[in-house]
Amino acid sequence: MTLDSAGPQVLSHEKCMHLLASCPIGRIVFTDRALPAVQPVNFCLDGDDIVIRTTVGSKLAAATRQAIVAFEIDDFDLEQRTGWSVTVVGYARAVDDPQEMARLAELPLTPWAPGSRDHFVVITAKQVSGRRLRQLG
User: Fold this and answer.
1) Residue 91 belongs to what domain range?
2) According to the model, what pLDDT value does residue 136 have?
């Protein structure tokens, strides 16, 4: 077990990807008018890529075209003071190839928000890191 300087267990890349695959909701961090913005999204993995489905005219779609973004998932037990967090930093791109769009439409990714969500944002991970907090004692 590897610990960072603050004490939490550092998770392996494989464990981080396993946790990403197990969680349907995450938070994407992007830039909106030169300021950081955070938005919860449902997502799924396509290999090691994170896929988000949104509307073509959304703020998220506009802000993530060819941008560096962060993506985060976590789970915490407040009573036990345990939990974990996984963070991904990578390049986001809008999908405009019709064949890729058709393939991504077949993924088990059903939008939670109302309305048509036929635009895909794909995040290609460049850095993946995770930490797990365990109960002391």
Assistant:
1) 2-133
2) 57
